[in-house]
Amino acid sequence: MKRKIVAGVAMAVVLAAGVTVLLTAETPSLPETSVALSSPDLIAPPSLTLSPTAPTSTSASPAPTSSSVPTTTPPPASTTAPKKTTKPPAPKAEASPNASGPITFYAAADNDPAGSREIAFPGLHREAGGTGTFADPLTFAAAKGAFKPGTKVYVPDVQRYFILEDSCATCSGPHIDLWAGPAVDSGVIRCEESLTKDGARPYQVNPPAGLPVMAGDLYRGGKCYQS
Fold first, then answer.
1. Cα separations (Å) of 159 from 37, 49, 126?
2. What are phi and psi of 157, to 5 degrees?
């Protein structure tokens, strides 16, 4: 009986030794790791160095709102009205006399018939008159055939335009007789005499517009034109 037990134990030892040899031969030795363990009771896996990965944002950046976008404020509109530039007045034209002759004057007081304003060639006016401007010249008389009715002249001595609308029985050639006004008093006769000068006086036939003008009758309100 003891021999059987001893033989069984011996057999078991042999088998155990064989298993041990077999395990030792088949199991390769693992290389030692250099990982330092913080605790001797824990077996840590080999050291792995992991790079920290920043979290990836999956949300799109919000579009800037109108309040976050810088705006440029336009300069305030000017409330001052632009200054108007006043053009300097154009220089007045100067008379260029192209004729000369005796210049006399008449009025309603010494017209024919006396006291009337009748004219021989009604045109711009139905009777003697006017203001002396280029658009509304005063009446003048001349010898028949000396000028065509409606002809304009400018007389520098009295700064007025005249238009041929009457005939003068005592005139000849370049002699012109200028209308002084509708007055019938003796004052107008004296005015005519003061305005009449000896010899030939210059005047311009077919003058341009824009020459200096002192508009109105040569005798008005008891006063005579003074050059």
1. 130, 117, 23
2. -60, -30
Measuring CA to CA, how many Å separate 9 from each of 1, 19, 34, 62?
Answer: 13, 15, 43, 82
Q: Which amino acid is at 104?
A: T
Instruction: Report which of 205, 145, 203 is spatially closest to residue 173, judged by C-alpha positions.
Output: 145
Per-residue tokens: 101: 């002759």
Structure tokens at 38: 């913080």
Instruction: Spell out where 90-207 has E strands.
Output: 99-101, 103-107, 138-142, 152-155, 160-167, 176-181, 201-205
Has this prediction a pTM greater than 0.85?
no
Give the chain's radius of gyration (CA, Å).
66
Contact 107/180 with Cβ under 8 angstroms? Answer: yes
Q: CB within 8 A of 21, min separation 6: which ones?
A: none
Task: Please give the CATH architecture assigned to the domain spanning 99-212.
Answer: Beta Barrel (2.40)
Tell me the pLDDT tens digit for each residue of 75-131.
666 566 666 666 665 556 889 999 999 999 999 999 999 999 999 999 999 999 999
Instruction: Name 190's Cβ contacts closer than 8 Å, sequence gap at least 6.
Output: 224
